[in-house]
Every structure is written in structure tokens, then in C-alpha cells.
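Structure ticket #2291
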Amino acid sequence: SQLARRPEPLSGQINTAVRGPGGVTFRDASRVAFFPDDDGAPRVWKIAGGPVVIVGAWTMDGLPHFALGNATTLRLRGSAMEPVPGLAGSVIAARPHATGGYDLLLPEGLARWDGAQMKLVARPMASDQARSAIFLNDGRIAFGTNRGGVFVCDRDGQLLQKIDRARGVPANYIVGLGED
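Resolution: structure written out below.
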């Protein structure tokens, strides 16, 4: 296992892994560890600490991005962490938008980011929050929520279907989603 070769320990639970150029990046609450595909030496960055924790990780433009609890977003470019101005909050997933910028799946819903500003454009779950979310291959969006099950939306975030316990989901608390 490459984890045994890490230069310093990750603290606690490793809860997110994202693919980036040349390897895989894992994160815990305060550190990011990059493991290169070529079995080279892993690298670790401490990017949070104290009351500030890493709250999310995703890939955008092929680069790993990390949201911190103090509304800061960092991205790993090459061997350096750099701030991403205008991008704050916990992003679950991102995809390029047809007219430029990005569609972002947030705990609150669908947002658009033009490279400088982020704007929430749809909140299909009302007061509930997404714990997980994915862009489906056909363009639709699925949100897995804390209390309401799965919300399936069109590409603009408009609700198409709600799948909850009454419709056969074992629980309304959805931790992860995947497409088969």
C-alpha cells in the first residue's frame, strides 16, 4: 500500500479521493496527500488546522480542488496549492457549463461559477441539504440528501423526481450516489 510510504500521517479518517493529473489525491480534515501514478514519493500538504477544516474535494479542469471551512478554496496545480478567487463553499461536483464557466453541485443545490463569481441558480431540495450529488451521463443531476432521499433534476436544477422511503429507498439519508 502506498499509504505506508506517506511522508507524514494523515489524521483521522480519509474521506475523499479525487483524481488529478498524474495521480490520486486523498484528504482528511487538515491534510491533502498526493500519490503519483508512477509510484514516486507521495506528497502531503497541511492546508487547514485548528477550527478550520477541509470540508470538500472535487475535480475541476482536471485539477483537484479543496474547500475549507473558512470559505476558502484551494486547487493543486503541479506541486503547489493555490487559492481560487471567487469560489467559496463546499462543492460536491463540477462540470463545464455549455455557455462557459461551470455548473457546481453544492449542498444547497445547483450553482454557476463564471470564473470570478458563484451564483446559486436552483435549490430543488428546499430546506434540505445534499450530502452527495452527481451529474448523470444524460445531463440530469441527482442529489442525495440528509432527510429527503434522492432528488433527480434536469440539467438546470429543476426537480423531475423525488425518490424517498415511500418509493423504495431504504433510508432518506443518502451518503453516496453512483451511476451504473
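Closing remark: The two ends are 28 Å apart (CA to CA).
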